[in-house]
Design a protein that fits this description.
The protein is 37% helix and 27% strand. The protein is of the alpha+beta class. The protein has a 7-stranded antiparallel β-sheet, with helices on one face. A 6-stranded mixed β-sheet has the order 16-17-18-19-21-20, sandwiched between helices. A 4-stranded antiparallel β-sheet has the order 12-13-15-14. Helix 2 packs across helix 3 and helix 6 runs parallel beside helix 7. The longest helix has 29 residues. It is flat and about 80 Å long. It starts with 5 loop residues before the first helix and ends with a helix.
Length: 446
């Protein structure tokens, strides 16, 4: 949202709500697309305008979209005519009771009020389906949790919900003493219920009493819920959940891929060392089917990462010897008084520390020296740019790095005024950066 936050639209509207008088918005729940009329257009300051070309508020005579509330974001949709198309990104009916204000982002054309124009509002069915599934899943979890505590004759735990199309979040006060084990237990009870697909009066009367007929019909379409994360924040204990087997499987696949990718990099480094008696690779073959499985894999990765880092620190000479034996590519050029050297390696064992150590070894003395040391590796693209002390006042590293930095730069660290370390997600970015610096030096000294 440019210039103004989404919540500010409602803040400005609240200050002027007494200026407007509208009939209640008619709500249609049986259709995904309707024709309607635009009653008024408002700009970001809640002023009446004749047209909208970017963001704005629209009041319609009727709507098919549920508004946001203190638990959930609103449904979304597309409003259009032959002359414009806009996405409805939020709906609010709380500021003026029963009047639905539609916050829109114009996609094409200009929105204007014209009685002769046919206006269509269409629900974003995919977005709304995910959102409503998360709303229903949050309600289901709360019902199971409350029933669980009643059975155990414990006080019912109150929670706050925060729901969007990606996940649902439950927020509890830490003093409620709710534990992760209880959350796991409730999750397992819900997943068994969803798997069995039986809403029996004997076991689930507490659900039958609380779910609407529409919710009862939709409940088993949830398929499964899974914990995404636990977060402790101030006085709150927060749990994020995913809903739907496909959504859960995709999330686990992506996270597992990232973790196994990081493990693979370490294994490649160990393979270069090629000494099983000193250090061996780590292999993971188990499936990731739950939050607990993912937690274990992450713990195994962190343990493996610490294990390798400890080995590196204890065997620096061995690592350095292996690196010194690796092939390097050397480039040098004289640019007026400057002696420019670029040495590139292709060895996974080279990290920032080794690259900086090599830079110091190569730039021990002399003036007017500019040194680039890079590691040409897809898994580990690094650069150390170092200049001799006499050039510190002449070549300012920070402005040059800022000028030619790329979105692919992952990390940039400066050491004093003569050294900068850059990590990127691909080597071409490193090479382009070096070429731009050399080109700038040539232009400067013409």
């Amino acid at each position: 949202m440019p210039q103004i936050e989404e919540k500010d639209w409602w803040k400005y509207l609240k200050t002027k709500k007494n200026n407007y008088h509208f009939p209640p918005t008619k709500i249609i729940t049986t259709k995904n697309q309707i024709n309607n009329k635009i009653l008024i257009l408002l700009d970001k300051k809640a002023e009446v305008v004749g047209q909208l070309s970017d963001y704005g508020l629209i009041v319609l005579d009727k709507t098919i979209l549920n508004s946001s509330d203190d638990k959930s974001i609103s449904e979304q949709g597309i409003i259009s005519s032959d002359f414009f198309k806009a996405r409805v990104i939020d709906v609010n009916n709380k500021i003026i009771n029963n009047v639905h204000f539609h916050l829109v982002k114009v996609i094409s054309g200009i929105i204007a009020i014209n009685p002769d124009h046919k206006i269509t509002l269409q629900a974003d069915e995919e977005f709304n389906k995910k959102l409503n599934a998360n709303i229903l899943a949050a309600k289901l979890f709360t019902l199971f949790l409350n029933h669980y505590y009643k059975v155990k004759r414990n006080p019912v735990i109150k929670n706050k919900n925060k729901i969007n199309d990606q996940q649902f979040q439950l927020r509890f006060r830490k003093k409620s003493n709710l534990t992760e084990d209880t959350i796991f237990e409730i999750r397992d009870l819900i997943n068994k219920f969803l798997f069995d697909r039986k809403l029996s009066e004997q076991k689930y009367q507490f659900l039958i009493d609380s779910l609407t007929k529409a919710e009862s019909k939709q409940i088993f379409k949830l398929e499964k819920i899974e914990i995404k994360s636990f977060v402790t924040n101030g006085i709150s204990f927060i749990v994020n959940f995913l809903v739907g087997k496909k959504n859960i499987d995709q999330y686990f696949l992506n996270v597992k891929k990232d973790l196994l990718g990081a493990i693979k990099v370490i294994n490649k480094k160990i393979k270069i060392i090629d000494n099983d008696q000193l250090i061996s690779q780590f292999y993971f073959d188990d499936e990731i089917k739950s939050f607990e499985d993912l937690t274990k894999l992450n713990a195994d990765y962190l343990k493996f990462k610490t294990y390798f880092s400890k080995f590196q620190n204890q065997n620096l000479e061995l690592i350095k010897t292996i690196v010194d034996q690796s092939v390097e590519t050397h480039y040098s050029e004289k640019i007026t008084d400057y002696e420019v050297v670029h040495i590139s390696f292709n060895n996974l064992l080279i990290d920032q520390g080794l690259l900086e150590l090599k830079a110091k070894e190569r730039l021990t003395n002399g003036n007017n020296k500019i040194l680039f040391l890079s590691n040409n590796n897809l898994d580990n693209s690094l650069l150390v740019w170092k200049i001799s002390p006499d050039l510190v006042n002449e070549i300012k590293l920070k402005p040059l790095v800022a000028k030619f930095s790329a979105s692919s730069f992952i990390k940039t660290n400066y050491q004093k005024n003569d050294t900068v370390f850059i990590e990127a997600n691909n080597y071409q970015v490193i090479n382009d950066f070096i070429q731009n610096i050399i080109k700038t030096l040539k232009t400067k000294n013409k």
